[in-house]
Amino acid sequence: MIDPPESALTGTLGPPEVMMPARLPVPAGLGRLLVLGVVFVCAACGLVYELELVALATYLVGDSVTQASVVLSVMVFAMGIGALLAKRLRCRAAVGFGAVEAGLALVGGSSAMALYACFAWFAQSRSALVAFSLVIGVLIGAEVPLLMTLIQRVRRQDAGGAVADLFAADYVGALVGGLAFPFLLLPSLGQLTGALVTGAVNDVAGGALVLWLFRRDLSRRARWTLLVANVLVLALLATGVLLAAPFERAARRAVYGSAARVAVQTGIQEVVLTGGTGTGAGRARKGSGPPLELYLDGRLRVSGDTECRYHEALVHPAMAAGPHARVLVLGGGDGLAVREILRYRAVRSVTVVELDPGVLRLARTDPGLTRLNDHSLGDPRVHVVTADAFDWLRDRDAPGHRTAPYDVIVSDLPDPGITASTKLYSQEFYGLATRLLADRGRLVVHAGPPVARARAYWTVDATVRSVGLATDPYRMPGRPASFFGPDRSADPTPRSTGEPLTAGPTPGYWGFVLAARQRPRFGPAPDAPPPPVTREALRAARHGDLRDRIPGLPASTLMRPRYQD
């Protein structure tokens, strides 16, 4: 039996360029290899664009799970739309692919800079994130049908074999791009320049394939149009690379309100310091310079004009509730909690476990920050460990690494609303911490704003109670929340619970949870330094929290984090 021709099976005649073999300047085998090489490069660039959007959105907005879900779902949906739209370009596959790659290089390469600009000057990045994910997804989705057409025109083969070759090159390229982003591009070039360089590579690969390998398929007008477009895209991307540093400085000024005097990428996070240069920038002193502010990944962690109240509220209740010779601080690499701890004469040793060595270095060397923390990390009683707090606690529980129990454990960690921090607010984490507590030991946890994010705050309380500790939640008036994201910002509005309010803007609240094996007592310690948190303030803080408790909340675990509910 003789099989009918393909056109007879489909009932239609394919477009002329789709059916005709390409006139290549090289043998068909080499041409096919070059097309697959471009597939590899384009796949690597496409995945870099995706990862760059996720990483930058996480840095700007927070909550990596939500950002990854938004970017990937919108992009995959858009890829389907792009594949459908590309059907109309198959009759001119070479021209269509060249135009798609030039557009993708420009949009993908400039996406990081545009997204950062929307955040810095318009305080709006979510809509821009969705728009870039949609456009990049459409362009990436259009690549595969056009490349499939081109590779078939180089040398005809069965559809299954062509798809297998194409997807193999695509997946390997995605692997390379996925590894290159965190291990090469991000540490060596940063997000802005890394995206721009990726766009340039994308533009060169796509342009070279069309303008050289398939040049005989192009009319003179199409050839010159694509050449000008590719050169223009390269020029724009190169201009972006040259302007990346001044652009980033201008964006920082727009974000932080003043010129950032220190801005470093530590490999873990971006650390920015503003203010704190005046002679009176230290604790409890007024001076001519603006107060020091410390930002980690764009979120306000320390403000020189309010941090004293925060750290007094964090440290003093736990220190006053019993013995405090041995203290463990989880986080707190800025040295400010340690400053408060060292004000107690009975303290014999303080262990600080901080993840980021860059923060520790600034806390020891920056004039403004050392003035604020009173050079606390240089005290001979302080031992600093650079490690992840969860891993360090787990290692202390292993045979051969056991340590003497601690009288006080201070958890001075980022807010549980930040996805990367949820394991540090889990049942497993508090279980490990409890094993290091002395019989009369206390654990105090910074638990986030108790009103604006009440469910998360009371989930922290429920999680601490789930490991067998009795808790005493409390809150203190703090600075209003800012758009920098959930961290040491407080609630935007106070509640009428009788707490003393400070002068200035209407304050919100910082929320804390104090825990022990027996219900901890509130009150000043015999060696408490002046001015401690007063008994009246603590009584008001407890009263305000206990009446707002949300009962029946489940504990948060590693496998079931509940702070995003």
UniProtKB/TrEMBL annotation:
Identify which residues the record assigns to the active site: D412 (proton acceptor)
- Domain PABS: start-end pairs: 235-499
How is the subunit organization of this protein annotated in UniProt? Homodimer or homotetramer.
What does the protein in this record do? Answer: Catalyzes the irreversible transfer of a propylamine group from the amino donor S-adenosylmethioninamine (decarboxy-AdoMet) to putrescine (1,4-diaminobutane) to yield spermidine.
Q: Membrane: present as a keyword of the record?
A: yes
Q: Which residues bind spermidine?
A: H311, D334
Report the coiled-coil segments: none
Q: What is this protein called?
A: Polyamine aminopropyltransferase
Main subcellular location: membrane
CDD domains documented for this protein: AdoMet_MTases
Give the membrane topology, semicolon-separated if more than one: Multi-pass membrane protein
Subcellular location as annotated = Cell membrane
Where, in this chain's numbering, is S-methyl-5'-thioadenosine bound?
Q269, E354, D388, A389
Q: Name one GO molecular function term.
A: spermidine synthase activity
Q: Which InterPro entries match?
A: MFS_trans_sf (IPR036259), PABS (IPR030374), PABS_CS (IPR030373), SAM-dependent_MTases_sf (IPR029063), Spermi_synthase (IPR001045)
A Pfam family (short name) is: Spermine_synth
**Family stated for the protein in its record:** Belongs to the spermidine/spermine synthase family.
Basic and acidic residues bias (residue ranges): 536-550
Q: What is this enzyme's catalytic activity, as reactions? A: S-adenosyl 3-(methylsulfanyl)propylamine + putrescine = S-methyl-5'-thioadenosine + spermidine + H(+)
Q: In which pathway does it act?
A: Amine and polyamine biosynthesis; spermidine biosynthesis; spermidine from putrescine: step 1/1
**Which region ranges are annotated with the description Disordered?**
478-506, 520-565
EC? 2.5.1.16
What gene name is given for the protein in this entry?
speE
Keywords assigned by UniProt? Cell membrane, Membrane, Polyamine biosynthesis, Spermidine biosynthesis, Transferase, Transmembrane, Transmembrane helix
TM segments? 29-49, 69-86, 98-122, 128-151, 163-186, 192-214, 226-247
